[in-house]
Amino acid sequence: MDDVHGADHRTPASVTDWARLFVSYSQYEVSAVPGASGVKIYTLGDDLLHVGGPNQFTGFCGIHTGWIEARVRVLPAPPAEADVGWDAISEATLWSPSGRLSVIGLMGGTAEALTDVAVPRGLIRVRVHARDRLHETVRTDDDPPERHELHIWAVSEETPWRTVLADPGGRDWEQKSAKAAEWAMLSLVPRPSGRPAILPPLPPDPYEDDTGLSRVAVIRYRPAPVEVSVGVLPAGDLEVRLERVDGETLKWSWATADEPIFPRPLATLPDGEPSTVRLTSGPDGFTLRHEGVLGRHAFALGLIWDHLLDTAGSYPWMETLREQAAEATALAEKTRRLQAERDAEQWGGAPPSDRVRRRFSQARSLARIDRPLLDRIDALPAARQREAACWAARRAMRVAGLEQIGWIADALADAEADHPLPRSITEQSGTAAFNRLLSDPEVPHTTVPLRPDPKAFGVTSGVTEMLQQAAAFPALIALADDDPLVAAINAVYSAAIAHGDDRDRFLTDAHIALR
Fold it and tell me: What are the Cα distances from residue 227, in Å, to 279, 303, 309, 314?
């Protein structure tokens, strides 16, 4: 019985063939965006259809596990009346940004004819028809197959789901509008993704591209007048401001809250454009039209209005937002405390100034052996920092027996005279000069003990020895740095290492020299 007597016989824009679909737990899903999350099942709906979000709903079968037949009819306009010959009919509005829709069994059952069906792009109304919904325990071979047919047409207004024809044997489902409104507001003010910044951003989902789609309206009816309060609608770090324009018109606009509740407040608004709320009363009741909203937000805004119109002044999402904010605050404090402990270990106390931390230097290594000296260098004016670098470099050259090596002595003298170091010292970041140091027969070869810092990453315990001249020479190369702070830190640290067991004496001299 493909066509039922009394049905609307206007030619559909398209119609699929009847297809066999395997369902489980008496359920299948109708989705315009694969994998989209939303309202939990059993929150809003009837015996045939439960809304699940802006892009999907769940359909209910009579059979628990087995095959049904289904097809999709896309109509050019809304049907004039409901088809006859069905046991149950319900409908809901979906947001289809891609213009595709699939009907899938709960555990993944698919049929080619019901996958990626072309539907109007944007808001669509989906009317589900069902008949012969029998459980397999009572079904016989003489019973016709269970059939579900979806009629789909384009709309520009988001209206609530509704029961068109109730199944006489169906049950009454409790409608949990407060939970739906909570989900709706949380979906509009989501926290930023926790995806690490080091990873590349995910590519845009083609199923969620709403480019070129017009804004829409959200419509809600009530049999009697209801009050819509002007003022502020709280939403955690954000808020909605409802301002009266005239007796029947309000302006809805998103804004950041004066007192955000999260340690890292949201700054991006769900919609930067204000929209209009029109309130009219007539003989049939009260109508609210929220016009000019983004299509992807229409479903959520409808759920929020459903709750506000019936329960004025109640904001069920705020409790969840406060709990999330408390968890985020506790996590931020824990992170801050752990970071402070790591900094204290790495820096030998409270972290130094930002200008020290921002520079690539031996600051952390110097802090581990003499934290006050690092602060003393940081406090010096730039000219004194340059003098400190030259002083430390000369001490390093002297202790390593390099002060009298001609080309080294000339370079040091240039630096002390505030002249640039020779190119032979600076080229290749000092690599060529270092190789020359190791191959110069006039350069002495002495060793000093090297005691690695056990708190430094990747080091092993124990005492080793290193070539004293190799330890001292970086103090000279440090003088090439244009930043006097970096030059001073690096030169002082290299000089300290070059002194080996006399390091403490050098550090004492440095404190005196750098006063």
Answer: 10, 17, 7, 13
Which backbone phi and psi does 205 adopt, to 5 degrees?
A: -80, 120
pLDDT-derived band at 8, boundaries 50, 70, 90: very low
Q: What is the pLDDT of residues 282-330, one digit of tens each?
A: 888 999 999 999 999 999 999 999 999 999 889 999 999 999 999 999 9
> Quick check: helix, strand or coil at residue 295?
helix
User: How do 249-256 and 238-246 pair as beta strands?
Assistant: antiparallel
Q: Which residue type, as a one-letter code, is found at position 85?
A: G
The string of pLDDT tens digits covering residues 412-424 is: 999 999 999 999 8
Q: What sign for the dihedral angle of Cα 23, 24, 29, 35?
A: negative
Question: In terms of DSSP bridges, do strands 27-31 and 56-60 run parallel, antiparallel, or are they unpaired?
Answer: antiparallel
Q: Answer yes or no: are the C-beta atoms of 386 and 484 closer than 8 Å.
A: yes
Contacts of 267 (CB under 8 A, 6+ apart): 256
pTM: 0.77
CA-CA distance, 440 to 438, in Å (whole number)?
6
Three-state secondary-structure class, residue 388 = helix
**Cα 295 to chain centroid, rounded:** 21
Positive or negative torsion for Cα 307, 81, 150, 147: positive
pLDDT for position 5: 37
Q: Is the pLDDT of residue 177 over 80?
A: yes
CB 242, CB 252: distance < 8 Å:
yes
Residue range 422-463, pLDDT digits in tens: 998 888 888 999 999 999 999 999 999 987 665 554 445 566
Cβ 12 vs Cβ 92: under 8 Å? no
406: phi then psi, degrees, rounded to nearest 5: -50, -60
Using CA atoms, how far apart are residues 257 and 318, in angstroms rounded to an integer? 13
Give the integer Cα–Cα distance in Å for 89 and 239.
38
Contact 352, 373 (CB under 8 A): no
- Mapped onto helix, strand or coil, the DSSP state of residue 256 is strand
Q: What is the pLDDT of residue 405?
A: 93
CA–CA dist 384, 173 (Å, integer): 80
